Amino acid sequence: MKIICIGRNYAKHAAELKNEIPDEPVIFMKPDTALLSKGNDFYLPKFSEEIHYEAELVVRINRVGKNIQEKFAHKYYSQVAVGLDFTARDLQQKLKEKGLPWEKAKGFDGAAAVGNWVDLNTLPNDINNLRFSLHIDGIERQNGCTADMLFPVDKMIAYVSSFFTLKVGDVLFTGTPEGVGKLERGQRLTALLEGSENLNMVVN
Ligand code: ZN
Question: Using CA atoms, how far apart are residues 126 and 158, in angstroms rounded to an integer?
């Protein structure tokens, strides 16, 4: 399976990292070994002094597709979760300054946490109006709504599938809203999707 991620998909987050608002989706990948499934805690890696959390809506692909038209994209997924795109921000900054790829900063083991899969048809709102949040030790640090995405989910699926064949089980991290920050050992991370707990883990 592939982990496909979209960067800079919320204008306020692009601004907080002093990035430009992109004309096209910014895409990067994480290897399947980055996946941190539910029930596992996150371990801060030794090679970074500044691991950031990024809470994101994650979409699970359930059909094989290539060159998917935006109007048919909704047929390619039925489940979502909240995920955490863990990022070694210090490493990423150095790589960005040199114009080098980000994989070391974004694709390390455990860098893609995914909460419980929820069937979209059990949620009161549709994919373009889902609210999710991240609480650290009980304090809300991020709160986003998919309505604020620069590139909505169906548009991204169309775009991504023009480059990469999507397969069953692939996951799409759809970008983070503002409020990202540094993790500390011992913190408890709790993510909510439409008000219900979706992910719960400790930073070690
Ligand atoms: Zn991200």
Answer: 18
CB 175 within 8 A of CB 59: no
What separation in Å is there between the alpha carbon of 9 and the centre of ligand 1? 9
The tokens for 9 are 């998909």
Q: What is the pLDDT of residue 158?
A: 97
For residues 87 and 105, is the Cβ–Cβ distance under 8 A? Answer: yes
- How far apart are the CA of 128 and the centre of ligand 1, in A? 18
Token pair for 37: 């499934």
Question: pLDDT value at position 117?
Answer: 97
Q: How far is the CA of 173 from the centre of ligand 1 (A)?
A: 7
Quick one: pLDDT at residue 116?
Answer: 96
Q: What is the secondary structure of 5-16 as a DSSP string?
A: EEES-BHHHHHH
Cut 0.90: pTM above it: yes
183 CA distance to ligand 1 centroid (A)?
15
Domain boundaries of the chain, sorted by first residue? 3-202
Ligand 1 centre from 123 Cα, in Å?
23
Contact 40, 201 (CB under 8 A): yes
Q: How far does the centroid of ligand 1 lie from the alpha carbon of residue 155, in Å? A: 17
CATH number of 3-202: 3.90.850.10
How many whole angstroms from 27 Cα to the centroid of ligand 1? 10
Q: Spell out, as residue ranges, where the chain has pLDDT lower than 50.
A: none
Alpha carbon of 177 to ligand 1 centroid (Å): 9
DSSP state of 164: S
